[in-house]
Design a protein that fits this description.
Its main location: membrane. This protein has 816 residues and is α+β, with helices and mostly antiparallel strands. 27% of the residues lie in helices and 18% in strands.
Length: 816
């Protein structure tokens, strides 16, 4: 399955199955589908980029006087936001969700690992991450930093995203690239005597593409300007190059289920005194360039923005959900869908597929650009010579190169339209925006994206309220990254989510799925932080999901993770249209009432990543993540007194223990390694000293660091039992177990663990190739069994809760 990734400068190249354009994508046969791969080089520059106020290579405190003083660059505020001293009073709380308390949960210095995850969840429950209480990205507080710089008399310099070559990129825009030669980071105050943040309101003409292939992002920004309320959710009010100017700005972005407030300085890449990347036709207007910088910051570099889907930008600016329409198979009422989408403020984009890399950004004879993202900015029905004609308005983020066919700027068709209507439609020559007939649009373009700002009226003819649920999950090698259904041995270990559909759609619901009765819902699976990983050679994984109907005998049962046998015996009821390397895969379904299980996965097993699964249902529905309840079904352990222990075992013990009749850590290691050396079928390097120390600590009841006769007898019997289990689940008789075989072995031994515990166990006890040898298996089960039995002893009231003071907690964790 080769990855087709031709270098592109706009939308990722795609086959007919995806928006944008690109080389052919391998399709899967119905029986065993291959993944779709979406092309596009991560570091492409837009060749021949032109723009007013742009330039660069085409390949690819509080007063004006103070601001003028700073232009010389003598003073720079380098505060990064971490450990920043108090700078005046803290800003007032921005929401009723107790932001002060929430911040206490996310700012401790020494919180890492599992504790950090617990802390984050507590903060989210307090409302942190909602738009009105956005998370301070990288801990940087805009207001505190701004006040600090004003008081120190220095302009802000962002050390979290500094003006250095690494912030430009890593390959084509990397530190040693010829394409970055001559680039200098300058502030707008160094380029213009009167720089402005926004001039006469933010408009579509404020976005002109520079030398970076991020037309998909700029098309999304252009659509954002159509709705002033939406725009200022992303671009907060009150920012200026005059009053309170300190070289610092901030923007709010939706990132995988939560809103973040992103701080940037105003040092921008320039060449020959002009902006290299996005710029405004106004010249001295900089909100769009600074927004692009904030987006580059959260994604790791400017180069990480090259190539993408407009829907990414739509969703990161709104938190909405995107549905895709392939225009060759569009519904008959698509124009009405577009009209209603524009009326309710949805963001729309479109693109033209390409068939090979040679077509990337090729310009047709009617001046449409292939493999390039356009914004859909309007739709209007006009009376033309007595007939109503459906028109659609689009914008090229280049700010130039417009459609020259019917209804283009200056075309003869406009002479047949009422002058007042023509004036209303604001026909302007060569500004990148143009009208065309809807018939031509359907013929020339191949894909339409509609991002609904809220889950209302998805593909619907009228407004409806949708119920929404968001889950965060992970795929981890050896524990929860099982791959797709083509890998039946591991598919079952993927995260699982249950949907309970209860109410059918209204009788007049006729916009999807024909006349069959059913429950409509939409699933959207999004992988996280993949652009940020590009500098390490990692890109989007190939993802998708399958939906299974829960059989009658399991309906209403507790949330139990379904096992391998279920998936071997049952076919999926529905699934995503394809597995493809997009950031998000979404599909709309209509199924009968009942319970269903959704299994999101990568195409191949052992592909790691984090994801967000969003569920939208029109009617009442229940959802929950399926995971086993942590418990142990262990037989009562027979603890023999010294008198009851077999004489042969006593004799053996005396030989092994020596004169003190107790087995030390080193002695235990010698004993166990001598035993397993006789089992040639076991793949192991022997028990380590640390493993034996852990076992002694866990089994030592009197705390002297050694094992007496009774203690060693218990350990001995456990190891014999573990050996038989190990051999039973070493299915390929390799002498070791795979991580997935270990999961089944742990369950057979009587333990039910949730996926988070399995992730921790595989991380701790498996080798780099995910093999688990016998000594690690024994250490794991000894620890599990001892800790379960220890907890059971302390849980005297059987409520599943044990309380420790700090000393007891440290005593337990350090000794274990």
């Amino acid at each position: 399955m080769g990855k087709l990734r031709p270098r592109g400068a706009g939308t990722h190249p795609r086959s007919r199955s995806q928006p944008g354009s690109g080389g052919p994508i391998p399709r899967a046969p119905p029986g065993g589908r291959e993944p779709l791969r979406r092309g596009g080089d991560a570091g492409s520059l837009r060749p021949g980029a032109r723009g007013r106020g742009g330039g660069g290579e085409r390949a690819g405190p509080g007063s004006r006087a103070a601001a003028r003083t700073r232009r010389g660059g003598a003073a720079v505020c380098r505060a990064s936001g971490r450990g920043l001293p108090a700078a005046g009073p803290a800003p007032p709380p921005s929401s009723c969700h107790s932001p002060r308390m929430a911040e206490e949960f996310i700012t401790p210095v020494y919180c890492t690992g599992v504790s950090a995850q617990v802390q984050k969840q507590r903060a989210k429950e307090l409302g942190l991450g909602r738009h009105e209480n956005a998370i301070k990205y990288l801990g940087q507080d805009y207001e505190q930093l701004r006040v600090h710089c004003l008081q120190s008399g220095a302009l802000f310099r962002d050390e979290a995203f500094p003006p250095v070559p690494q912030s430009l990129g890593f390959k084509e825009l990397g530190p040693n690239s010829s394409k970055t030669y001559g680039i200098k980071w300058k502030r707008p105050t160094e380029l213009f005597s009167n720089p402005q943040f926004i001039v006469d309101g933010a408009t579509r003409t404020d976005i002109c593409q520079g030398a970076l292939g991020d037309c998909w992002l700029l098309a999304a920004i252009a659509s954002l300007t159509l709705n002033d309320t939406l725009l200022h959710r992303v671009v907060p009010h009150g920012q200026s190059f005059q009053d309170g100017y300190a070289g610092i700005f901030h923007f709010q972005l939706w990132q995988f289920g939560e809103w973040v407030d992103v701080v940037v300085d105003d040092l921008l890449p320039t060449k020959d005194g002009k902006l290299v990347f996005v710029h405004s036709a106004q010249g001295n207007e900089f909100w769009s360039a600074l927004l692009e910088k904030a987006y580059a910051k959260v994604n790791g570099s400017y180069e990480a923005l090259s190539g993408g889907s407009t829907s990414e930008g739509f969703e990161d600016f709104t938190g909405g959900v995107t549905e895709w329409y392939e225009l060759r198979k569009a519904p008959s009422d698509l124009y009405n869908i577009i009209l209603k989408a524009l009326e309710r403020g949805s963001l729309l984009g479109c693109s033209i597929d390409i068939s090979s890399i040679l077509d990337m950004e090729a310009v047709t004879f009617k001046k449409l650009v292939k493999g390039h993202a356009y914004s859909v900015t309007g739709a209007k029905q006009v009376n033309y010579q007595g007939q109503m004609v459906n028109l659609i308005r689009m914008r090229n983020p280049w700010g130039e190169v417009e459609w020259t066919g019917a209804w283009s700027d200056g075309s003869s068709e406009w002479n047949g339209v009422d002058p007042y209507v023509r004036e209303q439609l604001r026909i302007k020559m060569e500004d990148g925006e143009f009208w065309m007939s809807f018939r031509d649009f359907m013929r020339e373009f191949t894909r339409l994206e509609i991002c609904n700002l809220t889950p209302d009226a998805l593909k619907s003819q009228r407004f409806r309220n949708w119920n929404t649920t968001l889950y965060e999950g992970t795929w981890r090698r050896g524990s929860t990254a099982g791959g797709c259904r083509n890998y039946p041995a591991t598919f079952w270990v993927n995260p699982q989510f249950k949907i309970r559909l209860e109410e059918t759609d209204d009788p007049d619901h006729d916009d999807y799925g024909g006349r069959e009765s059913g429950c409509s819902f939409l699933l959207a699976l999004m992988q996280k932080h993949r652009r940020r990983e590009r500098r390490f050679g990692r890109d989007m994984e190939t993802i998708g999901f399958a939906v299974y109907e829960v059989p009658p005998e399991l309906v209403g049962q507790p949330a139990v993770h379904l096992k391998r046998d279920f998936f071997l015996a049952n076919a999926s009821r529905a699934r995503s249209e394809q597995f493809i390397n997009l950031r998000e895969v979404s599909t709309r379904f209509r199924l009968p009432p009942g319970e269903y299980v959704v299994v999101p996965s990568t195409f191949e097993p052992n592909k790691e990543g984090d994801f967000v699964l969003r569920f939208f249902s029109e009617k009442s529905a229940g959802t929950q993540e399926l995971d086993d309840q942590v418990q142990a079904n262990l037989p009562d352990e027979q603890v023999l007194s010294e008198e009851e222990i077999d004489e042969n075992f006593k004799s053996l013990f005396r030989q092994l223990a020596g004169e003190d009749l107790e087995i030390s850590v080193k002695e235990l290691r010698t004993i166990l390694n001598r035993i397993i050396s006789k089992h040639k079928d076991l793949r192991t390097t022997g028990f380590s000293l640390e493993s034996c120390r852990s076992m002694v600590n866990l089994m030592d009841r009197d705390g002297n660091g050694k094992l007496g006769l009774v203690e060693f007898n218990i350990l001995w019997n456990r190891i014999r039992n573990y050996l038989s289990i190990f051999r039973k689940f070493d299915l390929d008789k390799s002498g070791s177990m795979s991580a997935y075989e270990m999961r089944m072995a742990i369950e057979f031994a009587g333990f039910k663990l949730n996926k988070k515990l399995y992730e921790l166990i595989i991380t701790r006890y498996s080798e780099p190739d995910l093999a688990v040898d016998f000594d690690n298996f024994v250490c794991c089960l000894v620890r599990l069994e001892t800790m379960f039995r220890f907890f059971k002893t302390l849980d005297t009231d059987l409520d599943g809760v044990v309380t420790f003071d700090l000393f007891k907690w440290l005593q337990l964790t350090m000794f274990a």
